[in-house]
UniProtKB/TrEMBL annotation:
Natural source organism: Franconibacter pulveris
Pfam families membership: AraC_binding, HTH_18
One term of GO molecular function: DNA-binding transcription factor activity
UniProt cross-references to CDD domains, sorted A to Z: cupin_NimR-like_N
Protein name per UniProt: AraC family transcriptional regulator
Keywords per UniProt: DNA-binding, Repressor, Transcription, Transcription regulation
Length: 264
């Protein structure tokens, strides 16, 4: 059974439990879960690989040791890398003190282990069962996790959306801001104002954030730094590493090494 079919057949809202966990592997599938919604909020954790979610006019990247939180009732879709192993935790509204907006959360090894354990538990309805106690601890711990800035604002404005779709599909396109203004039949000043109003970012910052999201997804899938730099249109590997260090605080190698150590 494919992960997409498994996701479709499982209804998290069918149970009144405060939280229910599921595990999905995408190793043998090119998996994309189409736009859907449910009453329970959804926490998506990557154990390996990466997943990209679209919700609330934003793109959310979920690299290893992070999770994306999607509150209940918000339409969303997800696309995983071919080698992704994911854990889902569906949470009843009000069961945990989690943000009211979509966000990416840092996930501690403890929370990762707790949720992984819950995927194997028989979730009976007894309030004092072992699974129920594990669930309460998990939800308490989740409320203390810090947010990570790993999202890309994508406006519903047709011109911004057209540019965003083009650059998501062709991230190697290094066209200048002036070129994009001409393509969109706007003056540079009008496009600059539109970008800030619709996304809160300048064009340069927006494209850098897009490159960071794609880089994290590709690197988490095992793609080499050299190939990622080429895919994003950088003239040299050093230029790409410099961008990554400025935004993430370390080189790609150190970034993923630190997360492996943290997971252990």
């Amino acid at each position: 059974m494919s992960p997409q079919l498994a996701h479709t057949l499982f209804d998290p809202d069918a149970t009144p439990r405060p939280a229910v966990a599921r595990h999905l592997d995408f190793v043998d599938y090119a998996a994309e879960v189409p736009v859907h919604t449910h009453r329970k909020g959804q926490l998506i954790i990557t154990l390996f690989g990466a997943v990209v979610c679209r919700a609330e006019n934003d793109i959310w990247i979920v690299p290893p040791d992070c999770a994306v939180w999607i509150p209940g009732g918000i339409p969303h879709s997800a696309k995983a890398t071919w080698n992704a192993h994911l854990n889902y935790l569906f949470i009843e509204p009000g069961a945990a003190a989690l943000p009211e907006k979509c966000c990416t959360l840092a996930i501690s090894p403890l929370i990762k282990a707790l949720i992984d354990r819950l995927t194997h538990e028989d979730m009976d309805d007894e309030a004092d069962s072992h699974a129920a106690r594990l669930t309460r601890v998990t939800l308490d711990e989740l409320a203390a996790m810090p947010q990570q800035k790993l999202s890309l604002p994508v406006s519903s404005h047709p011109k911004i959306r057209a540019m965003a779709d083009a650059l998501v599909n062709h991230p190697e396109d290094r066209s200048t801001f002036q070129t994009w203004a001409k393509r969109l039949a706007l003056s540079e000043r009008s496009l600059a104002r539109l970008m800030l109003r619709e996304t809160g970012l300048t064009f340069g910052r927006w494209r850098q954030q897009l490159h960071l999201i794609i880089a994290l997804q590709e690197l988490a899938s095992g793609v080499s730094v050299q190939n990622v730099a080429a895919k994003l249109g950088y003239e040299s590997v050093n230029a790409f590493i410099t961008m990554f260090r400025k935004t993430m605080g370390s080189t790609p190698a150190h970034y993923f090494a630190e997360r492996k150590i943290s997971a252990r």
